[in-house]
């Protein structure tokens, strides 16, 4: 009954009272008995009030609840529900509203999940992304873009691209994308601190469903590694050409001299043939080292692993190198931890030690000293080759493992070095998942250490 005194029923109740009062005025003209008139008016009031309450409970109140539920759904509360017990029209409406809320909630969750996934992918892609509208305002930048150009997203969002980005190539790319309405590709360099990075930018126009241009997306690729590889390839080709040209020119020149008649001079012929032999031997060593590097760099390269006694292997290598060591009057000291073993490819490991000792011999003056140490720890085995050679300047240390890089070009050529020894060592250590370290001081010597884990993954 409380509902009768609340809006909107209170209004309707006032209306019923007016209707009853009007009915009473009409009946008063024909009914003289006040008691009967009052009874009729009271009965009429009760019937109309009961009808009003029935109408309220049956229709008005459920519709108000349905309206409140829909308001909650509109606000984003998709968990809101409207329950009505009967199976009439209001009951059907209740089921429809609840079904709508469930469907919208499911759609919202699905859309949110897709949005989060898309945002995660875009934000973590390895290319920089910028979204620009048709008026030139930036709407979105991803993490990679921020990583390249610095700042935070709010430094870019909502700003005109030409006010916030000071790179002319980016400006040109945006302008051409809008002007020609097709993909535009450009390349430029950018400095991040003292580091120079190479970038490629692609501008792609965005059209709406009517085919009207609504903006552009810029994709920025970091091609620094690709550029470095290209420069390394060019340097490698140039170095190989130069290294091959020298012995081939010598062989050809002395062969021509012999053909021109010097062959009759036994002493000169012997000297020239010795030079031809030495140059061809150097050429063979160079080609063999190139083939070794090529095999090591193949993706399908397989190691033949076995348990190696480090003391025995270093002893075998020292025996092989003894003649060259004695010839240069050097002293070799070998000290290996008792029982030191390593799981590795034996032939490749021998090559590592041979190249390191050979490198020490080539760059150590007469009467110098070389030490080969093998140290076993709990987790790894370290092979160290130390010499009293010419040493390496500090600025040259980062390049020492590059192909054909020579600390002393004249000396290395005279000793017959190919310039590939340490590059081969580095590759072999890397395929064994080991670590290589170098320390050196000019005119005092060099120490190169290679460390291998006892258990390979």
Show the helix and strand layout.
Layout: H1 9-28, H2 34-75, H3 89-124, E1 128-133, E2 138-141, H4 143-149, H5 161-164, H6 168-180, E3 184-192, E4 195-207, E5 213-222, H7 224-259, H8 266-297, E6 305-309, H9 310-327, E7 331-336, E8 341-345, H10 346-362, E9 369-376, E10 380-387, H11 409-414, H12 421-431, E11 435-441, E12 445-453
Parallel strand pairs: 7-9
Antiparallel strand pairs: 1-2, 1-5, 3-4, 4-5, 6-8, 9-10, 10-12, 11-12
Helix pairs in contact: 1-2, 2-3, 7-8, 8-12, 9-10, 10-12
Q: How would you state the average pLDDT, rounded?
A: 82
Largest sheet: 5 strands, antiparallel
- The largest sheet has its strands arranged as 2-1-5-4-3
Count of helical regions: 12
Structural class: alpha+beta
Question: What general form does the structure show?
Answer: elongated
Low-confidence parts lasting 5 or more residues at pLDDT below 50? none
How many beta-strand segments?
A: 12
Encode the helix/strand succession as letters: HHHEEHHHEEEHHEHEEHEEHHEE
DSSP strand content = 15-25%
Distance between the termini: 81 Å
Helix % is 40-55%
User: Radius of gyration in whole Å, from Cα?
Assistant: 45 Å
